[in-house]
Amino acid sequence: MDNKERVVEKLKSRGLKITPQRLAIIEVLEGNRSHPSAEDVYKRLIERYPTISYATIYKTLETLCELGELMEVNIEPHKKRYDPFTEPHHHFLCVRCGKIDDIPLEEVPMPPVPDEVRDKYGIVGMCVYFYGLCPGCKN
Amino acid sequence: MDNKERVVEKLKSRGLKITPQRLAIIEVLEGNRSHPSAEDVYKRLIERYPTISYATIYKTLETLCELGELMEVNIEPHKKRYDPFTEPHHHFLCVRCGKIDDIPLEEVPMPPVPDEVRDKYGIVGMCVYFYGLCPGCKN
DNA sequence: CTACTATTTTGAATATGTTTCAAAGAACAA
DNA sequence: TTGTTCTTTGAAACATATTCAAAATAGTAG
Q1: Which pLDDT tens digit goes with each residue over A86-101?
Q2: Is B59 in the same domain as B105?
C-alpha cells in the first residue's frame, strides 16, 4: 500500500464508504515497513481519534486484506501483524526485541514449488519465516 | 518423537520426574502426525485422566520443545500446534477443514540461505508454511 | 518401608488478542 | 434534505495461553 488514493478508489469501487477512521488507518499503514499489530495502529490513532475502537481497527484491517492492499504476517504466535507491502518477500523476527524485518527475494529466493506439488496439495499461498537475533540484540 | 523410552531417558537425565501425566502426553504425541493443539491433547487425555489440567499440558509441551523432542507449528494464527516429528520439513494448512499436512523436502526443498544472509540477520531458525484447499475440500 | 525434599500438578484467576453485537452515528445517492 | 445503507462504538463475549499458591507426588536417602 504505497498510494492512499488508489486504496480510496478501490474502497469506493466496492461500494465501501470513505470514513475518517478508514482514512486514518490507511495513512498509518501507507509506506509503513514496521509490520504493525492492531494495537500498534490503535496507539498511533487514539490521540488523534480518542473514540476510535479496536473493533473498527480490526474490521478495517480485515477489509484491507480482502482488497489485497494488506497482508497478515503471522510470524509471531498469538499476535497478528500487518504488512502493507504486498509484493512477495520473507520475514525475519528477532526473538529478543520482537522487531520484524523484511528479507527480499534477492537475498533468499522463494523455494521452487513444482506444479504437481501445487496441484497435489491445492496450494494457493505460502510464506517463509525466519527467526533469530537481530544485530542490535546479538551483543 | 518416535521412541517414548528415549524421551523418558532424556527427562531423567535432566533431573525431571516421570509422572503419569507426562507419560500420557508423550504417548499421545509418539508417532502422532496430526499436529495436535494443546486442546487436542487435553481432549485425548481427559477421559483417562479426569483431573489433568491445561496447565500441565501446556507446561509439558513446552518442556518437550525445550528438550528438542517437539516443535511448535504456528501455521494457524492464534493457535499453537505441535509436531513430534522434528526433522526438517514444511507444513500445509487446509484453510477450509483446518487439517495440517507435512510437505517433505523431497517435494519442496528448503530455500537456500547464503551464510552472509544468515550472519546479517542472525538467523537461527526458519519455517515454510503453505496454505490452500486439500483434495477433500477442493470439490 | 519411611521420611524427606524438590518437583509437579491442579484449579482458579488472570492475561492477551480478537470477535461479536445491537444501538447510535455518518456517508453518500437521490 | 432526506433516506438508506454502511460504519463505528463500547461492552461483552470468546479463545488461547500463562501465572499462582496450595496440595500432591516422584524419587532419593536412610
Answers
A1: 999 999 999 999 999 9
A2: no
State which H helix or E strand residue B88 sits in. none
Range of the domain at A16: 4-81
Grid cell, residue A137, equals: 540484540
B60 sits within 7 Å of strand C by its CB: yes
Give the distance from residue A99's alpha carbon to the nearest chain B alpha carbon, in angstroms. 11
> CA B60 to CA B46: how far, in whole Å?
15
CA of B17 to C1' of D23 (A): 18
B62 and B46, same structural domain? yes
Task: Pick the last residue of a domain from A59, A81, A103.
Answer: A81
| Tens-digit pLDDT profile for residues B91-132 | 999 999 999 999 999 999 999 999 999 999 999 999 999 999
pTM, whole model, 2 decimals? 0.94
Q: Which residue in the block uniquely carries the three cell numbers 537475498? A: A107
